[in-house]
Write a structure and sequence with these properties.
This protein is mainly β and about 200 residues long. It has three helices and eight strands, in the order E-E-E-E-H-E-E-H-E-H-E. It has a single domain, classed as Immunoglobulin-like (Sandwich), CATH 2.60.40. The protein binds calcium ion (2 copies) and copper (II) ion (CU).
């Protein structure tokens, strides 16, 4: 059994230097600070990922999230690549709005590997973008998520090369997730899709 952790400590400004040395995962328990993907948010929390063979127990606590709304959560990344959470400089790559939308973050984030859903599929298929099975924040904007499920061996062996991403921000503070569609073109609003926390697993 091994335990890996990812700590979210999102600062008010997103311009944090990359800290590649935090990613060397030679001891069973390490943690890393994440970098903000939306400067107006202050999402903090941590993920504890415990593996027994290919059975993962994921425990994620987070606060500072948009209250009473579902927050898509996934493990992202490309096994074997040194991809990392997106830096602040990508915010204006595609749409110059100061936000890192999903398409802008994808080159760094890499693909979705595993979905932290509350029921049903945990793979990278439709479950990954299903707001109906995403963890829902409390009225205080917190999430306390625990689920045990099997993951593909290729990810179990290389979790420390991947990262945890949380999505969803009620940017205009009205009507839950509304407004323009997100960058993935899958019919969910930008507000639901936008990454709000990214943390390397160490
Ligand atoms: Ca942008
Ligand atoms: Ca809204
Ligand atoms: Cu994601």
């Amino acid at each position: 059994m091994s335990v890996l952790t990812a700590a979210f400590a999102l600062a008010a400004t997103p311009a944090l230097a990359r800290n590649a040395s935090n990613r060397a995962a030679t001891s069973p328990v390490q943690s890393a600070a994440a970098r903000s993907t939306y400067s107006a948010l202050n999402v903090t929390g941590s993920a504890s990922l415990t593996l027994s063979g290919n059975i993962l127990t994921a425990h994620v606590t987070a606060s500072g999230l948009s209250p009473s709304l579902p927050h898509l959560m996934q493990i992202h990344g490309t096994v074997g690549a040194q991809n990392d959470c997106p830096g602040a400089s990508v915010a204006d790559d595609r749409v110059n709005d100061g936000l890192i939308d999903t398409a802008e973050g994808l080159p760094a984030d890499g693909p979705i590997d595993i979905t932290f859903s509350t029921s049903g599929s945990t793979d990278a298929g439709p479950a990954a973008l299903n707001l109906g099975t995403a963890p829902v924040a409390t009225a205080a904007g917190t999430i306390n998520y625990t689920r045990t499920f099997q993951i593909p061996g290729k990810f179990a062996a290389r979790l420390s090369e991947l990262h945890v991403v949380i999505h969803g921000a009620d940017l205009n503070g009205i009507n839950g997730y509304d407004g323009v569609d997100g960058s993935l073109g899958v019919g969910i609003p930008l507000e639901a899709e936008i990454p709000v926390s990214c943390s390397a697993i160490n």
